[in-house]
Amino acid sequence: MDHHTHPVHHGADSGLPEILPPALALPACAAGYLYLVHRARRRNPAQGWSTWRTAGFTTGLLLLAVALLPPLAPLAHGDFRGHMAQHMLIGMYAPLALVLGAPVTLLLRTLPVTSARRLTTVLHSRPARLLSHPAPALLLSTGTLPVLYFTPLYDTATAHPAGHWLLHAHFLLSGCLFAHVIAGPDPAPARPGVPARLVWLGCAVALHAGVSQLMYGGFWVDVHAPVPEVRGGAEIMYYGGDLAELLLAAALVATWRPERGPRPRPQPETVPAVR
Hints:
By secondary structure, the chain is mainly α. The protein has 13 helices and no strands.
């Protein structure tokens, strides 16, 4: 057991330079999405755009605002429990909501035909097909947790403002990728069927639970924070991760349309011969 009781040594203070980028970027993203929704509805009024998808995307942006703005952002710099709450919001809850907003589908509906075809070509390219498989998505999201918390990487990254922002970007992008692969409504050509995706989600649940339990017990953890903070962060990871993965499973099952086999062709009735 190797608990570290040193104080957290974040070098990035949650001042105006850190608060300003998300305070400007998140409203800009919301405005851009709503503009595309307006264009999609004008281009095809009959098809329109789902209000639920719009609500999902805006909810994701609100969750990011909660994570990146006060009061949580300053707490995340001085308390490991605040960091873990921020991690859950940026890496699990916000990505699911953003992905359910189907931003790629919205973009395809509003782009000119030539640009939409180019984007479709990119989506069908070999790198995109590789990333849309659950294995790389799981490795980049949940699989990097032991590297972050069981090595000096966490303390090294959070000691510098740039490292802190890189962590945020990694949590968000890898979380969006995994949510998209498992339950995203946007097109993913190489995505396996629903039963296989449920298996991969189960692997993520097991890995997530294992990392949080090892962290709570103090095994292999390499985070320079007081023991109560580390244990509190582990509890947030364990219970918060379980809830996020249940929501992801619910989103997957909600979009499941089991394939029906071909119906047997009706056999012509045979008329008995009259003797």
